[in-house]
Amino acid sequence: MISVRCPHCSVKLKVDERKLPSGIESFKCPKCKQPVPVSVLSLSKNDIVSSETVLIQPLNKNIGRLTVLADGNTPEQHLQLYEGDNIIGRKSSAPSKASIVIQTADRSMSREHIRLEVKKDAKGGYKHYLSDNNSKNHTLYNNNYLGDGEVVVLNDNDEIIIGHTVLRFNV
């Protein structure tokens, strides 16, 4: 038996590694029903197995999402990203190439403010690439302005500010 901790809800679980089917990549947490990733290593008789609880980090096999944090001009919104180019900006009655629009009265946000490209990586997961889309008021990424042509890879809980509106990236 090994002790693991669900990476989603942090419940402690006991797993009999001898009963895991070969080739299994994950199992559902009995508490939160989210997948818990599994990587089974073969042990020789001389290997020592620690009795400490192990926190298993899930592989990023999901496409991310953005949460728009509420303020005086903008209600909270949840925006699902999709594979390929995502152009994100302010909703407007004027024509726009934005594929994801934010309901806001924040006029310092462009109608096509940022580009977020989602690409599949070699391991079957997804990488999320953020760049400013030639906006007038630029883009802040974790309190640093993105330079012209600069592209950054997003990580869970990164903060993006477009205009005066704060977005939180999660996978």
List the helices and strands and how they pair.
Elements: E1 2-5, E2 12-15, E3 26-28, E4 35-37, E5 54-55, E6 65-68, E7 77-80, E8 84-90, E9 100-102, E10 114-120, E11 126-132, E12 139-141, E13 144-145, E14 152-153, E15 159-162, E16 165-170
Parallel strand pairs: 1-5, 8-9
Antiparallel strand pairs: 1-2, 3-4, 6-7, 6-16, 8-10, 10-11, 11-14, 12-13, 12-15, 15-16
Question: What features would you describe in this structure?
Answer:
0% of the residues lie in helices and 38% in strands. It is mostly beta strands and 171 residues long. A six-stranded antiparallel β-sheet has the order 7-6-16-15-12-13, with no helix packed on it. The protein has a five-stranded mixed β-sheet with strand order 9-8-10-11-14, with no helix packed on it. The relative contact order is 0.16.
